[in-house]
Amino acid sequence: MKPETSFRRNKVDPFLKSLKNCYFDAIAQKGKSGSPDYYLCINGYFVALEVKSEGGALTALQDYTLKKVVFRGRGISLVAYPENWDEVKDKLSKLDKEIR
After folding, report:
1. CA angle 18, 49, 2 (to 5 degrees)
2. How many independent structural domains does the chain possess?
3. Nearest to 78 by CA among 55, 33, 45, 44
4. Tens-place pLDDT, residues 60-84
5. Among the four residues 24, 50, 94, 98, which has the most C-beta atoms within 10 Å?
6. H/E element holding 62?
């Protein structure tokens, strides 16, 4: 199994499923080139989440797509690596618990 696939299955998917105010859809393998791995709706926020293995890099098209999400208003884009996973989880948890 590829390192990115292992990271998604063992860390990212279980965490996303644990969020109470979150809907998410995994886009990988289904979407067009440049699409993030996940689209999430957390407490009304639209989040694009790209998952990379350690040392992985965004393609120019992925970077462009993530920036488009942010420029459209309340969109948030995040890139999760194993080395920053705790930080990404913290941001997503705060959105999930935000009182609106």
Report:
1. 85
2. 1
3. 45
4. 999 999 999 888 777 899 999 999 9
5. 50
6. helix 60-71
